[in-house]
């Protein structure tokens, strides 16, 4: 997840920070599972964002469905298997401590990674200092996906972020191979002409 410096105030009191979930687009197909010939797919997810934006909260929500409140500040790597369309997807999630600029990251990673900007702490509307429009515009200008969620309030929104990320990876791979299909083409067009992804 990245947070973008331009949307943070100087005192770091932003309660509605935009973040980006970034995933390497390359999905590694490991060897066939013992049970049959279904391939296990791995997605590598890097969470970037400034301090306190809720990177760990989002990770823990996705992994355990729970919001536990306090998370400490250790950099950690987690593995979590989720079923998407009947297929086991292994998310390797790196909950990092490093903030990074979205546009810089986009320039460096665009060809190899899918990026989603996530505005967390949606429940704190009264303390909000960044509007939905600002987040959406940022996502549009950086050609990234965009979600607004509350790790504190719902599991579903967080789940949607990770699933969407996987969809983006899958589509990027299909486009590369020329097998995107109708859904992939529509989504690619909406990426170009604007998209709106909120919880
Ligand atoms: N109200 C509310 N609080 C949240 C939400 N997500 C996280 N928090 C709180 O925000 C604080 C920071 O959350 P963390 O998940 O530790 O944030 P982080 O980005 O991992 O922080 P660092 O490890 O310092 O970089 C904690 O007190 C969380 O309980 C949310 O959606 N709503």
UniProtKB/TrEMBL annotation:
SUPFAM superfamilies: P-loop containing nucleoside triphosphate hydrolases. SMART domains: RAB, RAS. It holds the Pfam family Ras. The keyword Amino-acid biosynthesis does not apply. Belongs to the small GTPase superfamily. Ras family. This is small monomeric GTPase. It comes from Cirrhinus molitorella (mud carp). InterPro entries: P-loop_NTPase (IPR027417), Ras-related_GTPase (IPR051065), Small_GTPase (IPR001806). The keyword Nucleotide-binding applies. Signal peptide: none annotated. It catalyses: GTP + H2O = GDP + phosphate + H(+). Its EC number is 3.6.5.2. Keywords: GTP-binding, Hydrolase, Nucleotide-binding.
């Amino acid at each position: 997840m990245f947070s973008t410096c331009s949307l943070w105030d100087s005192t770091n009191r932003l309660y509605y920070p935009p973040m980006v979930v970034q995933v390497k687009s390359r999905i590694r197909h490991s060897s066939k599972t013992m049970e049959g010939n279904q391939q296990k797919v791995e997605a590598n997810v890097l969470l970037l964002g400034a301090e306190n934006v809720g990177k760990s909260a989002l990770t823990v929500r996705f992994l355990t469905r729970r919001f536990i409140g306090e998370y400490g500040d250790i950099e950690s790597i987690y593995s979590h298997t989720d079923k998407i369309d009947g297929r086991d997807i292994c998310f390797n999630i790196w909950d990092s401590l490093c903030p990074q600029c979205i546009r810089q990251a986009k320039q460096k990673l665009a060809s190899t990674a899918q990026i989603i900007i996530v505005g967390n702490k949606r429940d704190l509307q009264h303390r909000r200092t960044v509007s939905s429009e600002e987040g959406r515009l940022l996502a549009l200008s950086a050609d990234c996906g965009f979600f607004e969620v509350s790790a504190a309030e719902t599991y579903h929104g967080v789940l949607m972020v990770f699933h969407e990320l996987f969809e983006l990876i899958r589509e990027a791979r299909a486009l590369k191979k020329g097998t995107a299909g109708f859904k992939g083409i529509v989504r690619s067009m909406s990426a170009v002409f604007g998209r709106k992804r909120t919880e």
